[in-house]
Design a protein that fits this description.
This protein has one domain: 60s Ribosomal Protein L30, Chain: A (2-Layer Sandwich). The chain contains 5 helices and 21 strands. A 7-stranded mixed β-sheet has the order 4-20-19-21-16-15-14, with helices on one face. Helix 5 links the parallel strand 19 and strand 20. It comes from Dechloromonas denitrificans. This is Chorismatase FkbO/Hyg5-like N-terminal domain-containing protein. It holds the Pfam family FkbO_Hyg5-like_N.
């Protein structure tokens, strides 16, 4: 079930599309029949204004809508998208609108997964406006982390250990947008020996730690998928190479390499390599894109699949973030 472009996916039958994402600033046009996460962030280095990414299945999908979540399911796998406007949530002296929206989005996700008997959240993509802005004395990313963790704890998912791979990026405007993939079996969480686990960050990074693992190995019939979370220039728990986009790019990829090495220790298939991953690279400042592209080409070659997106990163001193995924076939014994 690889990531495919739109024409190939539709040619294979629209009922076999699990869902996808639309990146870029182009007009959305007609909505397809599957859940799509619209990421209103500029693409970098592409002549087109937008890009469609599609998850395609081998069999027809069941579809539904639950509390504003559009979802599709294929066997033991579910993909869904929810968007919530912060304006629909009234802040209180102790709970911001973003915190309330984040908690409610994850509550709805967990209710859906419980109803579908697919309780294990595998991978999450989070996008919110003004991620680094401070409102009422607290950065908005930290408000999001509180709301997210509240829902995890309320639904007894726990906030450490077996938590999903995830990213959280900032866009200029728009609703809180969350896409997610879940299944009937737990993911195998993967951490990075070069970094403190995000869920164990010290209190200087906010009242609640981020709720995600550095990567996750997940299993479908005959298939193993490696999801690598948003990965940045952090060693231990501190940002390194401030104001140096090339240094941050090299350090971020070194962290990806460390995660891949740890995943290979846990994987059931042949080893994953940096040159086979599909990457999404978020760059804070568009003018840094040529340097980032040149640096990555020197490290992993210029034939790998990379989509570059301009977006804000979860810390104000981080200049880029890299996420990635790959899929291997599981060998079966006769």
């Amino acid at each position: 079930m690889p990531l495919a472009d739109l024409p190939d996916a539709v040619a294979g039958g629209a009922d076999r599309v699990l869902g996808g994402a639309r990146l870029g600033q182009a007009s959305p046009g007609l909505a397809p029949g599957w859940p799509v996460q619209a990421i209103a962030a500029p693409l970098l280095g592409k002549p087109d204004d937008s890009l469609q990414e599609i998850w395609r299945c081998d069999a027809a999908c069941a579809a539904g809508e639950s509390e504003g979540i559009r979802w599709r399911r294929a066997g033991n796998l579910l993909y869904g998208v929810i968007e919530l406007a912060e304006a629909d949530f009234s802040p209180t002296p102790v709970v911001s609108a973003l915190q309330a929206a984040s908690a409610e989005a994850y509550r709805r996700i967990f209710r859906l997964l419980d109803a579908q008997r697919l309780p294990n959240l595998w991978r999450v993509w989070n996008y919110l406006a003004g991620i680094n802005q401070e409102v009422d004395g607290l950065e908005r990313y930290r408000q999001f982390n509180i709301g997210r963790q509240d829902a995890f704890l309320e639904f007894r998912r726990g906030a450490t250990g077996n938590v999903p791979a995830a990213c959280a990026l900032g866009v200029a405007e728009g609703p809180l947008s969350i896409a997610f993939m879940a299944g009937d079996t737990p993911a195998v969480p993967v951490e990075n020996p070069r970094q403190v686990s995000a869920y164990n960050y010290p209190a200087e990074y906010g009242p609640r730690s981020p709720t995600f693992s550095r990567a996750a190995l997940v299993y479908l019939p005959g298939q193993e998928i490696l999801f690598i979370s948003g990965t940045a220039s952090i060693v231990g728990h501190r940002t390194v190479h401030p104001d140096d986009v090339v240094g941050q790019c090299r350090e971020s990829l070194a962290n990806v390499a460390a995660v891949v090495a740890e995943a290979n220790r846990l994987a059931r298939t042949t080893a994953y390599g940096l040159d086979e991953l599909s990457y999404r690279v978020y760059v804070r400042q568009a003018e840094d894109f040529p340097l980032v592209r040149e640096t990555l080409a020197g490290l992993i070659g210029d034939t790998v699949e990379i989509v570059y997106v301009q977006a804000d990163i979860c810390r104000h001193d981080l200049l880029l973030e890299i996420e990635a995924m790959a899929s291997h076939t599981l060998e079966t014994c006769a």
